[in-house]
């Protein structure tokens, strides 16, 4: 889709050893960016993943462990990266429960990882971008950053917060060659979603096809999952010259969910 126009740029992608984060990292590497992968684990396979991406795409790739629930570690991630031309705030977790039954510790963790981490990483990355004269901040929000569902109070609050934080970041950098935008995916076919399908089949006594159509994609008018490649391609577009004046906005990749 894009030539290697990101050669010489370094992208830091939080929560990127699987799923959407890995999809975004892969597409950025395909476009020539060097990468810093991240998650809270520090396993041999995490580092092997970095080596594999580097070999496949001919870029430099490092894996740096950091717990995104801890502000100090969020900031240390960017500092250890050394440079950060592209920051993708992707790390996130979920918990579903009615508000009176929602565990306080789950609320705190979701707000910390899904929202506060983006503040901490951005605070350290922006001076680096200003020094180099160019930067892109891409926040992975959600359709739930624009609308809501019951029983997802912390997630919806955090994702709405990310959309607001995106706008503030864009306004503070509007006169510079730095942009900030939020990608708002609907349901994306990731390994986590794949793992949920058999359980949903048992719970609802439905076939795989019916679970996908009637349960998971009920609010996604296209009737199809988005893919991690599509989310990655959207991120690459936001790093291109075509998106120089795209800032402070949301891009929905949700099969029409938020058009309802």
UniProtKB/TrEMBL annotation:
SUPFAM superfamilies: NAD(P)-binding Rossmann-fold domains (SSF51735). Its EC number is 1.1.1.30. One of its GO terms (biological process) is monocarboxylic acid metabolic process. It is an enzyme of class 1 (oxidoreductase). PROSITE patterns: ADH_SHORT (PS00061). Pfam families: adh_short_C2. GO terms for molecular function: 3-hydroxybutyrate dehydrogenase activity. Keywords: Oxidoreductase. InterPro entries: 3-OHbutyrate_DH (IPR011294), NAD(P)-bd_dom_sf (IPR036291), Sc_DH/Rdtase_CS (IPR020904), SDR (IPR050259), SDR_fam (IPR002347). Belongs to the short-chain dehydrogenases/reductases (SDR) family. NCBIfam families: PHB_DH (TIGR01963), PRK12429.1 (NF009093). This is 3-hydroxybutyrate dehydrogenase.
